[in-house]
Design brief:
The chain is α/β, with parallel strands linked by helices and 512 residues long. The protein contains twelve helices and 21 strands. Strand 17, helix 8 and strand 18 form a beta-alpha-beta unit. Helix 1 packs antiparallel against helix 10 and helix 5 packs across helix 7.
Length: 512
């Protein structure tokens, strides 16, 4: 989530954003992170701009990014500059005269599975033209959050000869829709010979999410170095981590009946409350000697409550972030550094906590995509093969199948998921992921970021909260309720009372 959130659909700096993937360079294979970067390099190639051919290899996904395409007039790149951190999409795409095209350099000829990350009104016909054949698909998603985003895999494959050629995509006919909801994020290409093997690796990667069916709902908060008390200044870091009462916090969570906690390990200004050496190696002063995460995992574990961590890469550019992000980021086409640092940190954290860490929620897939997801996923599950992970694709479709559950920012459950699905999406943008949503119960925002902040009343009535919770629980859609939390772990009594009422009703029907 953005550090300032205006409503359940907002992303901070929505029109600032672009980020991509590296032109991966290799470290010596004997180094700890060299192996991860070799895996990364083997997984992905991407477009580097309209004048740069995309290498289409036989053993990896090639990404044709919309904002790197040669584009017809009239479309608009949704970003603020070429090196912006978040990478959104290209929109205002309405006419069959508007076309996106890329030059590709194919190493191995043959059939390639096509995946389109696109938004167009239900029933729109989209045509992808290659050097020897045309692939058409018809969009099926209904309007949601102002767009029709989907991750589409047509049944027909694209035939690509070896060498250099062009690929283009365009609409079959004029589409009448509001200006922003017809958009393109990317095309992905994967050789037919490796599709089944990749799908097998995805299945092997996936962890069991059935414990979410039993948990039903969770308690979420964003509390850390950035947090303020109800009155007065915040404590100098690591005062918040040193003084936080985990037993009091765990008792409060237990009073709600929540089956898990989502705790923010980091946020946009990046401080993590545990002694993580990989972070200190990048920039000292961003960790704590007290292992607050470990203490919290133990306190929750004694109450049979699981712990998951929300993780933000820390791309806040403000001076208060004191140089963290420049030590991680180069630009949208060179992400070697951020991948190396991310892998080191996430691996160390995962190995430190093992099975005590039940899951990761990685915010801002707008920064990640396209990424070496298989390699990142292996790092995220270091120390526990049971750990479940998710990337925040926001209103877009999932960016990868190398994840386990839906991040679900703003999602409050949906009757579109039948009870018989056992919590797993059977089709659509989140296909094969376990349904999960997170949203703010009160506000304004996700966390206490300024002094003298007064928490607003719950955004839903108790009756509506009960309706949401029981409907989602019946369909095994896990809901995470975010409460604004002060530096000392206190929350608004009115909000806590709503969640306690919700928990009582859910647990009466679905005991842990």
């Amino acid at each position: 989530m953005g550090i300032e959130r205006k409503d359940s659909l907002s992303r901070r700096d929505f029109h600032i954003g672009a980020a991509g993937v590296a032109g991966w360079t290799m470290m010596p294979s004997g180094t700890a992170f060299g192996q991860a970067r070799i895996l990364a390099r083997a997984e992905i190639t991407q477009s580097l701009g309209s004048d740069e051919p995309v290498a289409v290899m036989a053993d990896r996904i090639a990404y044709l990014m919309a904002d790197d395409a040669t584009m017809s007039p009239g479309v608009r790149v949704n970003q603020s500059g070429p090196d912006a951190i978040k990478r959104f999409w290209v929109e205002e795409w309405h006419s069959p005269e508007q076309e996106f095209s890329w030059t590709v350099n194919v190493v191995k000829p043959g059939k390639y599975q096509l995946t389109a990350m696109a938004s167009a009104p239900t029933g729109s016909v989209v045509r992808v033209t290659g050097p020897t054949n045309v692939v058409e698909f018809t969009t099926v998603q209904s309007l949601s959050n102002g767009y029709y985003w989907d991750r589409i895999v047509p049944a027909t494959m694209l035939d690509l000869p070896s060498g250099t050629s062009r690929i283009s995509i365009k609409l079959d006919k004029e589409v009448s829709a509001p200006p922003h909801d017809v958009a393109l994020k990317s095309l992905e290409l994967l050789h037919a010979d490796v599709v089944s093997n990749l799908n097998r690796r995805v299945r092997a990667f996936r962890s069991d999410t059935s414990w979410l069916n039993r948990a039903k709902f969770g308690f979420m908060c964003q509390c850390g170095e950035w947090s303020y008390p109800a009155h007065g200044p915040k404590k100098p870091w690591p005062g918040m981590a040193d003084d936080f009462d985990v037993e009091k916090f765990a008792n409060m969570v237990q009073s709600t009946g929540a089956g898990y906690v989502i705790w923010s390990a980091t946020w946009a200004n990046y401080y993590l409350p545990a002694p993580i050496k990989a972070i200190d190696a990048i920039l000292p002063g961003r960790t704590s000697q007290r292992d607050l995460i470990g203490d919290m995992a133990d306190a929750l574990g004694r109450r049979n409550i699981k712990l998951m961590l929300y993780y933000h890469v820390g791309h806040d550019p403000r001076p208060t972030n004191a140089g963290w992000w420049p030590r991680n980021w180069v630009n949208k086409h060179d992400k070697d550094l951020v991948v190396k640092n991310w892998t080191a940190i996430v691996t160390e954290v995962g190995q430190r906590y093992g099975d005590r860490l039940a899951g990761w929620l990685f915010d801002d897939e707008l920064v990640y995509y396209p990424a070496p997801y298989e390699a990142l996923g292996k790092a995220a599950k270091a120390g526990s093969a049971k750990r479940i992970i998710s990337y925040n694709s926001w209103i877009q479709g999932r960016g990868t199948d190398f994840q386990d559950f839906q991040f679900g920012e703003g999602f409050q459950g949906s009757t579109a998921l039948p009870v018989s699905a056992n919590g797993i999406w059977q089709s659509g943008p989140q296909k094969n992921l376990h349904a999960h949503g997170m949203f703010t119960l009160d506000g304004p925002g996700w966390g206490i970021l300024t002094a003298e902040r007064v928490i607003t009343p719950p955004q839903v009535t108790t009756a509506r909260a009960l309706e949401l919770a029981l409907s989602a629980a019946e369909r095994n859609e896990a809901l995470s309720w975010n409460l604004m939390m002060y530096e000392d772990g206190s929350v608004a009594p009115e909000s806590l009372a709503v969640l306690q009422t919700v928990g009582k009703a859910v647990r009466e029907k679905y005991p842990l």
